[in-house]
Design goal:
binds zinc ion; 326 residues; 52% helix; four-stranded parallel β-sheet; Rossmann fold; alpha/beta
């Protein structure tokens, strides 16, 4: 009898406390950009609590973490880096904010392609001599100035970009590459929380299937469109274009706004190819895109590479690109 009482009591006790633990001990995780939040949530579900370092609308080429984010890092168990340029400057400081936090590089094992420059200007590459000085400028920006800087920061984005112009960081925009990143995320979560290994494996399998389905949907969207081109201000869509055999025509040249002569050439190129839509993203100024659109009698459209609802967003962007392909 006493045994029974004890047994009943302890199982209630265990049930109560394990329920409590699940509800309250989500693994605190940080990611650099919003699409990664989607990836980690697909695999971690309600076992993780994900915070994003680069806020919506900010530019991952130049953003700086806020003091409250640096404070939140002290409670974070995992940081998923992806190789966006602000990490070059900040990752060491992020790591120092919490030596116990594990930094996981989700670009691990991914072969990065060259950042795309406009094909008319391959021999006109700009001087890289003053990169360092500009970098220091970026760091010295005051908090208050930053929002404004993002809106019309062209000179800063240009300089940051020049630094990593060799390799294209936008690896989250091709489904096959996201599958590789998802595997790295799964392994990190399993190592950090071995008690839920099976859950992470099952969630990963489901997510990988969703990614495959997205990829085959997009193949259908672009069937018969091989080699056609779309025009964008910032060349975020290199991996996407590569995956579906499209051509991205960037307006930015080596991370810089085009000079008047180059702009003229872009306008001619657009006219020759009957391009009518110029894509921009909310994180970059669209001044030269608007100018080109006006000159070709076309229009500017949005394609956001940093939306958090990654899967729906890629479906939507794909359809916009398809309409614009020439
Ligand atoms: Zn970019």
């Amino acid at each position: 009898m006493i045994f029974f009482k004890y047994f009943a009591f302890s199982s209630v006790f265990i049930l109560f406390f394990s329920g409590y633990a699940v509800a309250n001990e989500r693994i605190p995780v940080f990611v650099s950009i919003a699409p990664q939040k989607h990836f980690v949530q697909q695999i971690g579900k309600d076992l993780v609590d994900v915070q994003v370092m680069v806020p919506a609308g900010a530019n991952p080429h130049i953003v700086e973490p806020k003091p409250r984010q640096m404070a939140a890092l002290s409670k974070t168990r995992l940081y998923f880096a992806i190789g966006v340029p602000f990490e070059d400057v900040w990752l060491a400081k992020i790591a120092a904010a919490n030596p116990k936090m594990k930094i996981v590089h989700t670009d691990h094992g991914i072969d990065k392609i060259q950042m795309e420059a406009h094909h008319h200007h391959e021999d006109e590459h700009v001087h890289h001599g003053d990169e360092k000085a500009h970098n220091d400028d970026d760091q010295a920006l005051h908090d208050d100035d930053r929002e404004q800087e993002h809106k019309d920061h062209e000179s800063h984005a240009e300089d940051e970009h020049a630094e990593d112009s060799a390799r294209d960081p936008h690896i989250w925009l091709a489904p096959s590459l996201v599958k590789l990143q998802a595997r790295t995320i799964r392994e990190a979560l399993q190592t950090s929380d071995p008690g839920h290994k099976v859950d992470y494996a099952a969630n990963y399998t489901k997510f990988a299937m969703d990614i495959d389905r997205l990829d085959s949907d997009l193949r259908k969207v672009f069937a018969g469109k091989q080699g056609l081109r779309f025009m964008v201000f910032h060349p975020s869509w290199g991996y996407f274009a590569k995956a579906y055999n499209l051509k991205q025509v960037p307006i930015e040249i080596e991370g810089k706004n085009p000079k008047p002569a180059q702009l003229k050439e872009l306008i001619e190129h657009a006219r020759e190819n009957k391009i009518r839509i110029v894509f921009v993203q909310p994180q970059f100024s669209s001044r030269s895109a608007k100018l080109i659109a006006r000159e070709i009698g076309g229009q500017v459209a949005f394609a956001d590479p940093l939306a958090e609802d990654w899967m729906d967003n890629l479906q939507m962007v794909a359809r916009k690109f398809k309409m614009a392909l020439k």
